[in-house]
User: Fold these one by one.
Assistant:
Number 1:
Amino acid sequence: MIFEFLEPAFMQRALLAALVVGLCAPLVGIFLVQRRLSLMGDGLGHIALTGVALGFLLQTNPVATAVIVASIGAIVVEIIRAYGKTSGDVALAVLFYGGIAGGVLLIGLSSKKSNVNLLSYLFGSLTTVSKFDIALIVALAVVIFFATLLLKKSLFALCHDSEFAQVSGIPVKLLSMLLAVMTAVTVTIAMRVVGLLLVSALMIIPVATAQQISKSFSGTRILSAAIGSFGAVSGVITSFYFDLAPGALIVVIVIFLFISSIGFSSYTRRRSLRLQVR
Amino acid sequence: MTLGINSSSVVAILGSNGSGKSTFVKACLGLAPIYKGTVSIFGTEFSHFKDRDRLGYVPQRIHDAMGIPATVSEVVESGRLSHGWLRRFTQEDKEKISHAIEVVGLKDRENDSINTLSGGQYQRTLIARALASEPDLLFLDEPTAGVDLATQNVFAEALKHLVQGGTTVVLVSHELGPLRPLIDRVIMFREGRVSFDGSPDAEAVDSHIFHDHPHSSSKPAEGWEIS
């Protein structure tokens, strides 16, 4: 049977998680790329690790604590960015490495109580996604989806020209904060799919791919969401047949699409140049 | 310094680089911190001023071609957000956006990516973005710097329409060029102070343009900053 990958319940959950995360990650990532904050997702992923460890320590759901800790981290990052411009770069680095170190220390403390597998959060483990996890992932993904849809014009204005946005009366500080929190939430729901170390790839690479092909912002937005969800779902299906890590496969697939898009865009550019010369 | 600007006038702020003219405009718009003094717009202190749709701003050109692609109309759309940043666009919004693009002569490039535009065309896009909100008071920071003569003429034409409709215009510039006939008043800045305030026909204005303008001499004098 062709659709045998749909039979196991864990695969159904894995595919659903991959689909919604692959769809939402680029919808947030596009604003990060536009604002030149492509590494923001990586940084918040580091901070989320502390949240995961805190979840183990408190013996609650690690996804839930990661969402909370990463969101608080995002707000702190935005405050540092807004008020301490000169040393912002260093302050952010301190926060990010503090996130990893805190995570490792807290997991060390909790290892006496439970047998935790840090690797499954660093590199993703879709097949162990529980029913509670999937409910949380889908609910948060729906919120992200509609928030980016509702705010897309204001966020575009903010990321394109923040001074103009401020003069227009758009609450730039509030929106920047909201974008940071949305990034934190996306990072945490994506960590079960691709892992904290690869989270940013799913937010950034589909956008970088789409912008090679599209000439409008809305076109890039839609295409990047399509590429993200295609990459995520096809990665999970391929991993089922070849018994490979789905997170890494997803990232390799989107990188392959990115390289193809560069080839495609340079071919069409050369072709249109040649047509103009004739 | 104390400066009052009457409604329905066109004021040009001249001065060499570093004279404080851009900072002045940014302070008027709440973009630069004010350590001492107040800014009032339409009789309201700036921090209490809420009718942002009455305010227009054309910043100094920031053209980065490497960003996410966006079409001319997507950029101009941002101009309508001053009428409410959370609402959906109505038919009226769409008409104003389309009209603003037409005024600056970019109708045929409407759906092209801004990454494919020339510097002058991108500047026109930014002007259209400010026009789309139909402001009563428009600030322009170096609108004609590094822009070809064709764009300067298009811009002068667009400005004339605005002024006839009763808009107040404050523009920062190095030179007056084709805008000269439209200007009612010239304020000159030097080292953060007003060094001249009066009619554009005054002799001082000509001497400023002749002596202080970096492009008018082929070799800049010592100590000048050209960015």
Number 2:
Amino acid sequence: MPALTLENIEKRFGKVVAVRDVNIHLPDGRFVCFLGPSGCGKTTLLRLVAGLENPTRGRILLDGADITHTPAHRRNFGMVFQSLALFPHLSVAENITYSLKVRKVDRRERLRRAGELLELVQLPGLMDRHVGQLSGGQRQRVAIARALAIEPRLFLLDEPLSALDAKLREDMQLELRMLQQRLQITTILVTHDQREAMTMSDLVVVMGPDNRVHQMGTPLEIYRRPADTFVADFIGTSNLLEGVCSEAGEVTVAATRLAVTEVPGGISPGDAVTVSVRPESIHVLPGREPGPNRFCGRVSFIRDVGSSVEIFLDCGDFQIISMSTPKGRPQVAQGDEATAELPADACVVLKR
Amino acid sequence: MKAQRPRGIGAYLAFFYPALMLGFFFVIPFATMVAVSFFHRQPGAFYIPAFELDNYRALATPLFSRVLVFSLLLGALCAALCVAAGLPFTYFITRLKRRFQVVWLVFLLAVLSLSEVIIGFSWSLLLSRTAGISNLLVRLGLMDHAVSWSPGLAALVLGLCYLAFPYTVLVLYPPLSRLDPALPEAARTLGASPLRTFFTVVVGTLRDAIVAAFIMVFVFTLGAYLLPQILGRPHHWTLSVLITDQAIYQSNMPQAAAMAIFFMGVSLALVGLTMVLGKRRRPAND
């Protein structure tokens, strides 16, 4: 049974629709990311889950029970806010044990638990420190410890890492993921950083600028089999080629016949389609060597970042980006003629 | 980088003007008052320069102590009422849309444009038996017969709070509107009811602003000398009324000056105490 179910959820603020028709089931004990560009409604969706907003339409079910109208303070969820929202007038220990005090846990037990939680987030001995005296990373950990104090049913994170610098952010991503795996707690993270979503989560929910859920799946599924052009474009880099579906297993792109392994249902010959191909699946050959699944062009730019090499091939109306390891680097230079080969199994056909 | 020093006499002139104004209108009169409090009163005349503590010794009367304590308690009561009403009210305003916030603030500022005398007489009229609100309540069947609520302690407190309330809101508004909305939300996700959230998080975070508002209303009320005479009975008269009486009607300037200075000393001590208590639990670093 899914831990959390969102059924036909819609949220309007006046005339503005923030979340549109969301239907998702989140399995128990997993790390789920709500990923999308800013303004796609991912934070609103998280706030609906937390009970900080009421949906205009739809139901929220937790372990089968309807919690749509349960107020936030009776949901027993732990939430880390983007601003962290540490209480500035309280000490670290008082911040962490706020929820325990509300639940009338006695003082000794509270202090014991605070020590335990600080141990968990690797901040032992900071109990009596004032939150104003902490560094960015420490504040982050205190906010996490505070949200975990009641052993919440759901752990909700609203872009908590966005304020940290790149190095610290990556450390915290890893740490958060390990913490979640150790505690086996169902977690939802909101982020606009696709790298963060791909590296941390078991499941990614991709939301688009139309405020709908575009795809939900494992990071690899979403990367390899994007559901539509938005997902293909938003997640990683994609070559998006516009063509026409000719017959089963083939797409014509700029007079070149492109064999594909799979044409999804609902697309019939003659339909306009977009073919998405990941740069690392494309092989570049020196010289002009036409053939099936091949596009010829001129190398317009080469970006060598050490760990990988990107080759930009100008094919007239469109551009193809290929990426290879330094070892497999094709022997071409800027300005050379070259041919890009797109393997049939790397071509994902999407409805336009 | 080196701070640039003001160049030429023109730059200093800018500082000179406020310094002059402050000295002329505040320091000199205050110094005069301190000096006069030690002068000798000449009955039938004015006073002659001297240095004697008689004026301060004369303060040790039951009347003076009673009025002093009453004034301080009245100030504290009004301050407590204004803050207690002003804090939730201001919190409510800051949660409104910008447009409605402006309407409320303009309305409150409009109240400030009324003079103390007009406010005093208006309330005295509204609370009177012949033309007051009680007539309305009788008409509505809520009361049997019209009564007079003014003069009286309740009328006085009401009038003073009416005057001080806009200031309270104006002092509390900036910190409340800057309050991170995620703070109360965090408290709610941690299991605190809305009421508990308000008392533990909103009040806790704004302790400094609350202390500031309290002190402001307290000091403001201590200085009121018109409203006690309009809305209060003689035994509700505050020390400010007593000082006015000494200075103007008894022509005893030295006595009035001594009263004023003693009163100021006590008030300052209490304000200092309040600030110390308000900051007591605050950690050193913020």
